[in-house]
TrEMBL record:
Protein name according to UniProt: P-type Na(+) transporter
Pfam families assigned to the protein according to its UniProt record, in alphabetical order: Cation_ATPase, Cation_ATPase_C, Cation_ATPase_N, E1-E2_ATPase
Lineage, highest ranks first: Eukaryota, Fungi, Dikarya, Ascomycota, Pezizomycotina
Cofactor(s) required for function per UniProt: Mg(2+)
Chain ranges passing through the membrane: 72-95, 101-120, 299-320, 326-351, 871-898, 918-940, 969-989, 1001-1021
Recorded catalytic activity of this chain's protein: K(+)(in) + ATP + H2O = K(+)(out) + ADP + phosphate + H(+); Na(+)(in) + ATP + H2O = Na(+)(out) + ADP + phosphate + H(+)
Family: Belongs to the cation transport ATPase (P-type) (TC 3.A.3) family. Type IID subfamily.
Topological relation to the membrane, as annotated: Multi-pass membrane protein
InterPro entries the UniProt entry points to: ATPase_P-typ_cation-transptr_C, ATPase_P-typ_cation-transptr_N, ATPase_P-typ_cyto_dom_N, ATPase_P-typ_P_site, ATPase_P-typ_TM_dom_sf, ATPase_P-typ_transduc_dom_A_sf, ATPase_P-type_domA, HAD-like_sf
């Protein structure tokens, strides 16, 4: 920070990173543009932006806390599991068991070193991901609108901001409409500040009075604007006082006081007690991290208690003897139950999972959502830009008394010269629009298009062009557009006929001037502007058809100046024409206008009702937003994964229905006919219909709507609550400020990275960088994979713990001539097995790819979590199976092929009398080590055979080798444990003095045979599970016809008896 402070010396408030002739608030917009060497329309080019990043540095305030090696090292030492190992080491040294104490000390040191580097890597990964989920900025570079992380903003960038955005840098405002920002963080002013782009101020004007400048970190509360960035990072006004804003959260519980500020003595005791328990909870990991991390920390504490009980059992079995070897064995038995690597492996698995999600266009903002994604049963998605491409093209327009215009062969959203225009005098409901071609009228040549720009159609075009914030311009030999995709499409349509807003408003001597803008409101579903013309002021409105025609009182029946009152019959006629356009999948908007009475000052506050009333209806325009090619595939995969997809959109029901059928959210037209009328009515509802229902009535619906049209933000919240009452687990998408309540209320809130506001992103759990529905499915797949892998390595650890504890406890039955237990495993062997077979193999399981059928099974139950009945039974079966084989190998060597002599003092030193015990111990050690390692491979798929994990593969005998080699981290982790066994058995002194076993020869035959039996037993158990779950599934859903279309399997439960006859099976009831 010293370096930064030095560079700030002499910096003047309001100046740029590189000082200009005057502070930005004292310069006109033109002067700011010239001094920063940028352009209002094109912004900077990419090369210049990169150069300026190098020159000025990142747009950061410098307060981000970097990864601290010291903190990570302390965390490795000062955690519950390591402290248990240190305690065991202290006990070993305390009873002068130097070898065992030395080995435990080595394991502690190795765990700390390995854990440090693993945690360091995980923290660096999470640090980079946090930077990805930081606020973004919408810039114009090279004439194109792009979204970049706020840290990449440089002086000279042209930035666009709207309601809900956080301003990423200090900007000189222009093109401001009703633009207000909250500057309380900087100035302490509680009320939003209205900005004035044309004003300039004295150099010494204070920050709160610079009304032509908007500041970094302030929030946009109203309107929209563009701005030229002049200061970034520590050179911004907020950067200059950033140090004052840095806070550290106090971990001390406050004392509860009375209104007079006094507190009774017991309140101090309460605060101190809670602070102490919080600290202990943090140390043990019981109150920090994600729900699963907390659950595993609690599991670790439970296992610690079990470990203490196991140690007591060992002591009791030997009459609480104080002999050194008994105490050390008790400690080793206790250690066998401690999953030392569990929480570390979980952290690394989650970090790796979030990193892989970034490659699939998903940024995780909240780690708990990783666990939640695997249990999602319903996705509530927006349509525009998520299921569709967000690249709209105007396909048709109807003007009463004139006729219908259609656009064909145009695939360029920004080019008003692309494609052809047809004109027919009939209205949409009287034309076969689906047929296209001549059925839509005669083709109009491009030379004659401007000739249509008159009379009623001219008024229609004025609304299309002026009630519009988008700009279309021909620059650098190509057409470019800035603005919302919907408005760009309408502006391009108007520009086809020579009615371009850039020419009407922006040029010298322009006929029109902006006065007031009433932005689109998701509740009223309209937007309006008041424009000034030499003939007076005019109001222009566009919006949802039903809402606009409510505000209209007249129309021009013959396209001329003879107005007619709007009757109910004409309103029905408008709606029929709208349905004709909407049935093509077009988003239909209505346009209206009127002469606005009275004088209005620029930027004045006006009553919305005075503008959007007594309007003249001008016509309809239909916009086509094609579905993304991958949306239909993704929806189908959701259905196969047991996930129901709901579309919540602001569009008309017919438009929404057409797109929903196209992407597969609703059944195809022929299948739709099979659905009973009451169910069909529930499948597609408008927000008003849904909101009219009480909660009880919603709960009585046979099915919640799959499509909600004309959806308002409050409707999204009601849908989430309805799903929760049905025990469903839902993900909700959102992009606007008003979506934040539903994003917070949803189990997984999903914000749009490109179209989303900063407020929506802050409220979300994950952010889609490409705004693509298919990325939601990718996130769910990754969530399921992470859930599976966590379950796999936790099962591996716990099954191994059961096996070790079982072997050690049952082994207490082997008594020598003095009455002391002869241990089948030495303490150092136990510690080595914990170290060699847990950490790295479990991490390898955490990196395992998704199993083949991960999206062909129902979502996981998050109430049960990873500890399902199957998990618990597997843990016991695998643990006891390994215990049985290990004890059998010990018994075979001692009693089967030996004379049964257990000698005396064989727990401590090697002698000829103990040779048989030492060889049996080496055999047991080899068996347990190998079985624990091989179990990791068997855990790759918890049900499929290790030798047949890819069901579609034709490699019947070699597929297992390919699967084993594919995860090379796990492969080498197993190989290292496998190979290091041999030197431990055969290196002199190390074997007999440290590990308390002797070299073996023919006993390897027992080890290999037991390994074969181990695989046979596990494979048999998996076969029994597959048989059981197939039978269980068949009973639950009936026999499923594999040739049946997925649509019939999903929507079959909605078919009426009249249409499907015998085809309605039990499967349909449970589909």
């Amino acid at each position: 920070m010293a370096k930064k402070a030095a560079t700030l010396e002499g910096h003047v408030s309001g100046q740029a990173n590189k000082p200009m002739s005057k502070p930005a608030h004292s310069l006109t917009l033109k002067e700011v543009v010239e001094e920063l060497k940028t352009e209002e329309w094109d912004g900077l080019d990419d090369a210049e932006a990169k150069r300026r990043v190098e020159e000025y540095g990142s747009n950061e305030l410098g307060e981000a806390e970097s990864v601290s090696p010291l903190k990570i090292l302390i965390a490795q030492v000062a955690n519950a599991m390591t402290m248990v190992l240190i305690l065991a080491m202290a006990v070993s040294f305390g009873i002068k068991s130097w070898i065992e104490g030395g080995v435990v000390a080595f394991v502690v040191g190795l765990n700390i070193v390995v854990g440090f580097f693993q945690e360091w890597s995980a923290e660096k990964t999470m640090d980079s991901l946090r930077s990805l989920s930081s606020p973004t900025a919408r810039l114009i570079r090279d004439g194109q609108q792009i979204t970049v992380p706020s840290a990449e903003v440089v002086p000279g960038d042209v930035i666009e901001v709207k309601v809900g955005d956080t301003i990423p840098a200090d900007i000189r405002v222009f093109d401001a409409v009703n633009f207000e920002t909250d500057e309380a963080l900087l100035t302490g002013e509680s009320l939003p500040v209205r900005k004035q782009e044309d004003a300039t101020f004295e150099e010494k004007t204070g920050p709160g009075d610079r009304l032509n400048v908007a500041y970094s970190s302030s929030a946009v509360t109203k309107g929209r604007a563009k701005g030229i960035v002049f200061a970034t990072g520590v050179y911004t006004e907020i950067g200059a006082i950033a140090a004052q804003l840095r806070e550290t959260k106090s971990r001390v519980r406050p004392v509860k006081r009375k209104e007079n500020g006094k507190a009774k003595p017991h309140r101090y005791l309460e605060a101190y007690t809670l602070t102490t328990t919080d600290a202990i909870g943090r140390f043990l990991g019981l109150n920090v991290g994600t729900p699963l991390q907390k659950k595993l920390s609690k599991l670790a504490m439970l296992l610690f208690c079990i470990a203490v009980i196991c140690a007591i059992i060992v002591l009791a079995a030997n009459s609480f003897s104080s002999r050194q070897e008994v105490i050390i064995y008790a400690v080793a038995t206790g250690l066998s139950m401690i999953p030392a690597s569990l929480v570390v492996v979980l952290t690394i698995t989650m970090a790796a999972g979030t990193k892989s999600m970034v490659k699939r266009h998903v940024i995780v903002r909240n780690l708990k959502s990783l666990e939640a994604l695997g249990g999602v049963t319903d996705i509530c998605s927006d349509k525009t830009g998520t299921l569709t491409q967000g690249k709209m093209i105007a396909r048709g327009a109807w003007v009463p008394g004139i006729g219908t215009y259609t656009i064909e062969d145009s695939t360029a959203p920004q080019d008003p010269t692309a494609g052809h225009v047809r004109f027919g005098s009939n209205s949409p409901s009287q034309m076969d629009l689906k047929a296209g071609g001549d059925a839509c009228g005669e083709r109009v040549s491009s030379e004659k298009l401007e000739g249509h720009n008159h009379s009623g159609f001219g008024e229609f075009l004025k609304v299309a062009s002026l009630a519009n914030l988008a700009a279309v311009k021909y620059v650098h030999d190509k057409w470019e557009a800035h603005g919302d995709p919907t408005e760009i499409a309408i502006q391009v349509f108007a520009a086809r006929f020579g009615m371009n807003r850039s020419h009407l408003v922006k040029t010298d001597g322009a006929e029109w001037e902006d006065l007031v803008e009433l932005p689109f409101d998701s509740d009223v579903k309209r937007m309006s502007v008041i424009m000034k013309h030499k003939s007076g002021n005019y109001a222009f409105t566009k919006g949802a058809v039903e809402r606009v025609i409510q505000s209209c009182t007249t129309y021009y029946a013959d396209g001329n100046e003879q107005s007619q009152p709007i009757t109910e019959e004409f309103r029905e006629e408008i709606l029929s024409h709208m349905q004709a356009l909407a049935s093509l999948g077009l988003r239909v908007l209505a346009l209206a206008s009127k002469k606005y009475p009275g004088e209005v000052q620029k930027g004045a506050e006006v009553e919305r009702a005075s503008v959007e009333s007594d309007l003249v209806f001008r016509g309809l325009i239909g916009l086509y937003d094609p579905p993304r090619p991958e949306s239909a595939v993704a929806v189908r995969q959701c259905h196969e994964a047991g996930i129901e997809v709901h579309m919540l959109t602001g569009d008309h029901p017919e438009t929404a229905k057409a797109i929903a059928i196209e992407v597969g959210i609703l059944p195809s037209a022929d299948r739709y006919k099979k659905i009973s009328a009451d169910i069909a009515k529930s499948l597609v509802m408008t927000a008003s219909e849904f909101d009219e229902l009480s909660d009880d009535q919603v709960d009585e619906l046979a099915v919640l709507p799959l499509v909600v049209a004309r959806c308002a933000p409050s409707t999204k919240v009601r849908m989430i609550e309805a799903l929760h009452r049905r025990g469903r687990f839902c993900a909700m998408t959102g992009d606007g400020v008003n979506d934040s309540p539903s994003l917070k209320r949803a189990d997984v809130g999903i914000a749009m990275g490109q179209a989303g506001s900063d407020v929506a992103k802050e409220a979300s759990d994950i952010v889609l960088t490409d705004d693509n529905f298919a990325s939601i499915l990718a996130a769910i797949e990754e969530g399921r994979r992470i859930f599976d892998n966590i379950q796999k390595f936790v099962l591996h650890v716990l099954a191994e713990n059961v096996a070790q504890a079982g072997t050690l406890l049952v082994g207490l039955a082997f008594k020598d001539s003095t009455g002391l237990s002869v241990f089948p495993l030495a303490p150092v062997q136990v510690v080595w097995i914990i170290m060699a077979t847990s950490g790295l193999p479990d991490m390898g399981l955490g990196f395992e790819r998704a199993v083949p059928d991960i999206l062909n099974r129902p979502p996981q139950s998050l109430k049960k979590g990873i500890f399902t009945v199957e998990f618990l039974v597997d843990m016991v079966v695998y643990g006891l199976w390994i215990t049985l084989l290990c004890l059998s190998s010990f018994v075979l060597v001692v009693y089967g092929f030996g004379d049964g002599t257990l000698g005396s003092g064989c727990n401590d030193t090697y002698s000829d009398d103990c040779d048989l015990v030492f060889r049996a111990r080496a055999t047991t050690f080899a068996c347990l080590t190998w079985f624990a390692l091989f179990l990791a491979w068997e855990m790759i798929d918890m049900r499929r055979s290790f030798f047949r994990m890819q069901p579609g593969s034709k490699r019947y005998f070699t597929q297992w080798a390919i699967d084993v080699w594919r995860n090379q981290f796990l492969f080498w982790a197993v190989m290292v444990g496998f190979v290091t066994l041999f030197p431990l058995i055969y290196i002199p002194v190390l074997n007999t003095a440290v590990f308390k076993h002797a070299p073996i020869s023919w006993e390897w035959g027992i080890v290999f045979i037991m390994a074969g039996i181990f695989f046979a037993g596990v494979e048999t158990w998996k076969w029994c599970k597959r048989f059981y779950f197939r039978r269980k599934s068949a009973k639950a859903t009936g026999k499923v016809d594999k040739n049946m279309e997925i649509e019939d399997r999903v929507f079959g439960r909605y078919y009426s008896d009249d249409h499907d006859g015998n085809a309605r099976t039990d499967m349909h009831e449970k589909a």
